[in-house]
Amino acid sequence: MDRRKFLKYSSLGGALLSTGNFSWKNMYDHDLTRLTILHTNDVHSHIDPFPMDGSRNEGAGGVSKRSALINTIRNREQHVLLLDAGDIFQGTPYFNFYNGEIEMKVMSEMGYDAATIGNHDFDSGIDNLKKQLDHASFPLVIGNYDFKNTTMNGHTSPYMIKNYGDIKVGITGVGIELNGLVPKPLYKETVYGDPISASSKWASHLKNEEQCDFVICLSHLGYRYRDNTVSDVVLAKESTDIDLIIGGHTHTFMYEPHIEKNKNGKEVIVTQAGWAGIMLGRLDILFERGNKNKCISCKNTLLK
Question: N or C terminus: which one in the chain shows less Cβ crowding within 10 Å?
Fold first, then answer.
């Protein structure tokens, strides 16, 4: 079997199953490998559900519901990847009192595979971010922050690789410009690099040198803007080797992903799952020989 496979995207939670025409036998054909990607972003220290106070989000979110759903999915699916696109910290008294320890511990308990860094993850300073990594069992993946003159030096990676059956998945990450969003004393000598150049560099490395079948970019740039500010949509358009962008920062509730064409005319999936843990993102991806890329349907789930 050829190591490099074409991809076919599908979701089992939406309209396909409701038609009654979906073949479970085909799903588990020996020539198919299925990967379920779960994702969050901008959880902002929301450990508990929103209070039952009559507000729009009452009862929504909470790590208990998210953990239960993740466990249910893991019990049903063979290959599950769990990711976060940054802004883990800041937003509730849990962060004010514990500076991120609780957030890192519950994400570790839920079995997150990787996360990237958001601007609010510096809110108690870069030294605190480094300190809280002691409670994290997952890596922080980011390719456009240079930490060499900070306490975070050596504690992040520009990419990671996960293997699922005979499928090789590469994950990189990019963060937003900190100047103007975060006071300089909080991020200290962190050097910001162009996210398009950085993501292109590491995605190319993953696809062409590491021979990854699928490349994911965890982005804390924001979904899109009215001006020319770099966003996930811009990143997708300027890319060549990224297959999926999981975004954050703009708190965009996307029930289905946006499909954008890259510089070579290939489809890139762009998705984001709101904020505060109200939504769990999900994409089910089939890796199949002889098929071109096609996104049929991918559904995100509100946790209410």
Answer: N
